[in-house]
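Sequence only, no structure available. Ideas?
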Amino acid sequence: MRTLAVIIFWAMCSTVAAAYAGEESNAINGKWVKLHAKSAGCGCGECIDIQLGVLQSFCVESNQIYLNVRYLLDAKLKRVYLFWESVVEVGSGGAALPWDKFDKRKPLAELDISTIKQGTIRMNWFGLRRWDNPSKRYSLGDGYAGTYTQANR
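Reply:
I predicted one. Tokens follow.
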């Protein structure tokens, strides 16, 4: 049932994204660097590579948690949502987490793209949330929260 809800949301966002295709959608895709990032190497938590609708690897915690994620656009709300789909790799810290209890219907993060024409987007990080206890939240990856500018601008 949870998988069906994610598929329906993905289909709705894909339909909206198709309607929003063109200049705006192209402006979203690509590498974004967090303001005041500590390194130019785009370490975990310092940049994001948005490819709308494409399944891609995402570092949540360096050397600990890597997930397959998908960025989904809601053009009407001027938001992009980051959903996780599966675990790619976990270190010893990530292996102890209850992966079977994390809700894949809830986004890891929300990106406010209303300021994209000014060259910035803002990420609100929610983290992993449990389906069996919605108030329980794992804030791993909260270093991603903040404002980003597009690389090569």
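The longest helix spans residues 2-19.
Hope that gets you unstuck.
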